[in-house]
Amino acid sequence: MQQIEIGAFASFNIAIMVLAAGKLLHRRLRLLRSFNIPEPVASGLLVSLLVGALHAVSGVELGFNLAVRDFLLLYFFAGIGLNADIRTLRAGGWPLLILLAATVVYIAIQNLTGVAMASLLGLDPLVGLLTGSVSLVGGHGTAIAWGPRFAELHGVQSAVEIGTASATFGLILSALMGGPLARILIRRLPAPEQQASPEDLRDPMAETARPGPPITSFQLLATLFWLNMCLGLGQLLYAALEALGRSLPLFVCALFAGILLTNTVPRLAPIPWPAHSTALAVVSDVALGVFLAMSLMSLQLWTLQGLGGPLLLILAVQFLVAFAYALVVVFRLMGRDYQAAVLCAGFGGFALGATPTAMANMAAVTQRYTPAPKAFLILPLVSGFFVDISNSLIIQRFINWLS
Question: Which of 2, 120, 234, 368 is packed most tightly, with the most Cβ within 10 A?
Answer without folding.
Answer: 234
